Amino acid sequence: MSSLNKGIDKAEVTLKWDPSPYGEPANDLDIIAATYTTDALYGEPAYLVHFDSRSPDGTITLKRDSKTGQGLGDDEAMTLEFSRLAERYGRVVVGVTIQQRHGRRTFGDIPRTLVRILEGYDELSRDDFARIPDATAAVVAEFVRDGDGEWQFVSGIRGFDGDADDFASWMGRRPAAG
């Protein structure tokens, strides 16, 4: 018997922030997606999608990548096509990280940040990172496949303070209960 609940077929994660003040190094934030197989939902991802890559099957794509936060509208946008994602995948975690090449930067240092999770015109989540000002990266969304094979959105922001290379591994941890 099939479920009467509709899962998420396609989602978009958008990110925006204001540029650095004139004369200051540019703030560069990046959206990252980590994909996990159904037999290894936690730990190391099967693959990552970020500014220099895309998913092997083209189901997760970074459509916009800003290095400065300049311009109108969203600075970064990632599309996740769950209806096309192979059945062997059971979890996708999406995060945002701040590039640290010009010295330590946290979300508290970046003016007017906004991350949104959308399903079509419906806004599933919106956050400005104000509750994690000392974090250098954050998990912003999780999508999990339920028992009926439908994709569900799990809300919640989890801040991370550390090296960007360690963030990719940290994303795969099981979220703390609470």
UniProtKB/TrEMBL annotation:
Residues 5-163 form the TerD domain. InterPro entries: Stress/Tellurium_Resist, TerD. Pfam families: TerD (PF02342). Signal peptide: none annotated. PANTHER family: CAMP-BINDING PROTEIN 1-RELATED (PTHR32097), GENERAL STRESS PROTEIN 16U (PTHR32097:SF4). Belongs to the CAPAB/TerDEXZ family. This is TerD family protein. It comes from Streptomyces ochraceiscleroticus.
